[in-house]
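Aim 2 progress update. The chain analyzed this quarter is reproduced below.
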Amino acid sequence: MTTAALVLVLLSAGATAPAPAGPGHDAGQALFRLGEADEERGDFAQALEHDRACAAAAPGTPWAARASARIDWLLARSEGGFAPLARLERVRRDPALADDPAAVEALARDAEAFPPGVVRVEARMLVAEAWLGRMRRLDDAVSELRRVADDPAADPLTARLAERELVDALLSEGRSGQAAAEARARADRLEPRFVRRVARLAARSWALRAAFAVVASFGALASAALVRARRRRALGAALGALRGVAVTVIAFSAFVAAGGAALAASYESGDARPFLLLGAAVLPVSLVAAAWSAVGSRRPAARVGRAALCGAAVLAAAFAVLDVVSPSYLEGFGL
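Predicted structure tokens:
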């Protein structure tokens, strides 16, 4: 169908449109619809011509206003004679292609040859979000997001969004140290509160590793001491120590669990689970500490070191419990 014929069809069909607002209203509507049809076919150069004709034929009408907005949008994406835009839109407008890993991979390759501009930014953003979400290619997505954030053609909002998604992606994979380093380096593109939150999460991750190291060291040294005691046939002392403190340790653990749970329950948003698990964690650590103390060295330095490590193991176990069950409690400690 020729352009003239399509204009006549649109005019005779009486398509729904805003109320007439001046001379040339019907011609403006017809030309605007032609521009829409051009865009649907991927002929963006022709769409631009029809939009310009619409703005000229119907000045002051809603059609002219809409055409002017679309002219600005097209001109901002006209690099490469609209070829990059047509390539991007084929994927962006087709859900099957947008969900096809091969099609997204091909777009990523093609985008590397796009001339600098808005289309290259948008193509990389589309690829990054596809890889970040449903296709689970984190490292590739991070690379694309970094290219978007560093692209001079990216508007400030897009650059900030890319940087935020980049840091969130690293956090989602447990790479909090990298996320914190990225957030510090690009703090000017991120909200200060978000940067502080990422720093806290990184510190919490390091603290959790230290907690596991303390508990592991405690268990290894206590086990080594008990093994040596067994070789010396001195485990009886450890068993005697356990019998002597078992009731006290069980009572203390129960007090920690029940008392903390009751205190938490007194608050509307309180969570009793951390205290119950803390009581359960204190019990084995305390029993092992008592057995180790009974068979370990009697030298003052050894006793002090053993006591310090036992106390650290209790605190480490408490930290690990809070991190797993209710991390919000750790925020009060700046973590």
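The chain has a mean pLDDT of 81. The chain has three domains: 3-14+21-75, 82-190, 206-333. These observations will guide the mutagenesis experiments scheduled for the next reporting period.
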